[in-house]
Amino acid sequence: MSKVISIDLQGSNFTLLVMHAHTTCMPKIRLALIRKIKESPNFFTTNTPIIINVANINQSSDWLKLYQTVSEVGLLIMGVCCCYNNQLKKTITKSRIPILTKGTNIINYNKNYNSKIVEYHNYSVLTFKTQIIYTPIRSGQQIYARNRDLVVIANVSSGAEIISDGNIHIYGAMRGRVLAGASGHEESQIFCSNLSPELVSIGGHYWLIDQIPQEFLGKSARFYLKNNALVIQHIV
What we know:
Residues 133-233 form the Septum formation inhibitor MinC C-terminal domain. By secondary structure, the protein is α/β, with parallel strands linked by helices. It has helices at 26-39, 60-72, 86-94; strands spanning 16-20, 48-53, 75-81, 99-100, 106-109, 117-119, 129-133, 142-145, 148-152, 161-164, 168-174, 177-180, 190-195, 199-202, 205-208, 221-226, 229-234. It is 15% helix and 35% strand.
């Protein structure tokens, strides 16, 4: 009789927002979060996962208030980073929240759009092979083309996540989150035939949909980096 395997543990790759708490004034944090959620309602859905940078939090009581504030606005705390206070670590651990170290792919969500950068670690060398997908990518699905380009000949739905260490080509509606150059390759580009994403990122530099000029939405477009900034142009 063959042995049945009950579970299978595998590594994966996720992109998570990081909130930096620059104050311990909870009403200010609540208002700032509500404002961000209203600015990008398609990006911040119910229970959007988030990481909290607690470098500026020193008191256990402040953490408990912060945990409650973030949870009450509808965000789901997946972990904390930059926790160097031993007493605070004990309190966070009692809250059953993981304390993360470098190695996780995270988005630094700072106050200034120009300073928002995805931090990537463990860079790898691209082999520039191509992965081609012919079926639609549905909400909740994640596709990661490791060390290769990615071509999707179908629609990408809202709530889906497309990640590639190289270039990304989408010949269909481009919704969801699309991240090229995920291992830090800043020469990667994104091409699509119908632009309407929740997030676009190349080499860690990213835009939310409200940063994309209206004239490009629903049209074919190309994204690339120039002088460490995202550039968008029409595809004729």
